[in-house]
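Running log. JK asked me to keep both predictions on one page so they can be read side by side. First protein, sequence followed by its tokens:
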Amino acid sequence: MKIILTEDIKSLGKKGDVVNVSDGYARNMLIPQKKGVEATPANLNSLKLKNANDAKLAKEALEAAREFGKKIEASAVTVSIKTGENGKVFGSVSSREIADAAREQLGFELDKKKIQMNGVLKELGDHKIAIRLHPQVTAELTVHVTAE
């Protein structure tokens, strides 16, 4: 019997896959537990329409991420940290501080978990920080670190 999976099943496949299983397994396990539906022509057509809609939404999300990435790359934020004599830096700049500065100065809502930094910034000057907006889109934000 052909079944359309409604959720991921480790031994069979991923959600949306059409798999061939024994009749008993389908009737006694998959269909009653709502882990699959029978692959009738109506259900197959519904799956096809859902996949087309999901592809369209994914394309729109990718385009939106690219547009937002262009805005991010065209802008910069300034973060100040305390310094002592001879330009010695006290503390550092973290991803949370960069996200807060972007919200205050630019109005951009950036998730601190999406900001990809190697450690923290402990030097004055300009730094390029990668921000992962989408699995296929990464933008670079310029961060000016200045003394207070």
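And the second, directly underneath as requested:
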Amino acid sequence: MKKQLLAAAIGTLVAAPSIALADKGPTVYGKVNVSYENYDNGTDDQWELNSNASRIGVKGALDLDIPNVQAIYQAEFEIDVDNGDSGDGETFDQRNIYGGFTHASLGTLIAGKFDTPFKKAQLDVDQFDNLGGDISSILGGEERVSNIIQYSTPKLADVITLNLAMIPGEGDDKAGETRDNAADAFSSSVVFDNGTIFGAVAYDSEVTTNIYDADFAGIGEDLYLVDAVRVSGGARIQNFELGAIYQKSETSDDVAGMSYEDSSYILSGAFSLNRLKLKAQYGLTSMDQTDDDLTLMALGADYKVGDKSKIFGYYANAEADENTSSLEDTYFGVGFEHKFSM
């Protein structure tokens, strides 16, 4: 009997800190995504082991003395599983990092470095995120921005969220001027999601990002800023997933008397049957001044081998039709992904 009581007491002491941490402490999370790929750009044809934005992070919320208000935080870092070096001898690359406050009925305010509302307005459309078929291959505006402050409303009617972010320039020289105002750029979105249907409308104003029309014309990114509109939508209907994005981007001001403009379209779809998911994606970006086109096509399959693990294979082709020449990147790969949290 004494041994049983002693064992129970030790078990209680060991379990108590775990319960406290689960209730108040941070959550450690991440994923390992590794693929073995053949990459061919017409000049180089080689096999590579890639880490595909594998990551580790910590996030949580703290109760405050202010009623109904919590302090929130997140620190997320990219890790290179394939070689352990993210560049320049560094182990980690910064991803979404912020601190702030949240109130159930007033909304959330955060500040730090994180994805803009415009970028996050892609929602679940991209079926090949962080792989060779990622929509960023042909789509501008996929930015994670430093020195950004964002306010988000609570969910209105349980389905709609408004996001507004401002970005001070902090004295940087951009597009021939010094950006030192309280807010030199804005990014915003309205997001709808009821679980079955989702959609978003997003707008960027004078955000530092790229326009392929200007890039292909030989205009450096430090010489222009971008205004852009993104409309996305899709549906999750039983075993099917459908998604689409339309985007129009243009230089905020004329560059040497010229305005540069991109129009982009993305279509994606997936079909799931038990553990197997088949997916496809197509995209087109048309440029105004250069009359060039970018196209993206990707096909793939995921197979779940556990609640948070999968193996996958995919093929992707990104092509640039530039005047009379053509540039082409082709990817073929197999890999796995494990997600974790504690």
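Observation for JK regarding the second prediction: Residues 53 and 78 are 6 Å apart (CA to CA).
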